[in-house]
Design brief:
The chain is an alpha+beta fold and 150 residues long. It has 3 helices and 9 strands, in the order H-H-E-E-E-E-E-H-E-E-E-E.
Length: 150
């Protein structure tokens, strides 16, 4: 009887700890932490991502903080930076200087982007399908939202 009570208490403690980890994106196993680790994951690469809304996107990150973002046929340029345990972007012609920040996690399907704005999210906003070195797609770094006809 005492053994089963201890097992039940241990199980309850584990479940409570797991719930706490879920409630704090950006913390714990699998989450990328520290500015240098985040910079290493994106600098000088193009991320081809799937989105939970069913779309796809591509984002080229230069080594000096510039970024080109292709989504829904439109190309936006801006800047990226790592800040504490977050990857942040600003696209002046899209949303002024408002920062859009994400926690990054090594997930089962690849690197995942989780919104800092939605700490209770149950799924990432996007996940990396492929990482390409450099800018093989030739995404322009000076675009103010040029959209292609689809």
């Amino acid at each position: 009887m005492l053994f089963s009570h201890r097992v039940a208490l241990s199980l309850a403690a584990l479940l409570l700890a797991a719930g706490t980890a879920e409630a704090e994106p950006g913390r714990g196993e699998g989450w990328l932490s520290g500015e240098s680790r985040i910079e290493e994951a994106v600098s000088g690469t193009t991320h081809l991502r799937g989105r939970t809304d069913g779309g796809d996107e591509a984002e080229y990150h230069t080594t000096d903080g510039k970024v080109a973002y292709l989504w829904d046929g439109c190309l936006w340029s801006g800047r990226w930076w790592a800040e504490e345990d977050r990857l942040c972007y600003a696209y002046p012609s899209l949303s002024g200087e408002a920062a859009h920040c994400f926690y990054l996690r090594d997930g089962p399907a690849g690197l995942e982007y989780w919104s800092v704005e939605d700490p209770d999210a149950r799924q990432p906003l996007a996940w990396v399908k492929s990482v390409l070195e450099g800018n093989p797609q030739g995404l322009a770094l000076n675009s103010g939202g040029h959209c292609q006809d689809t």
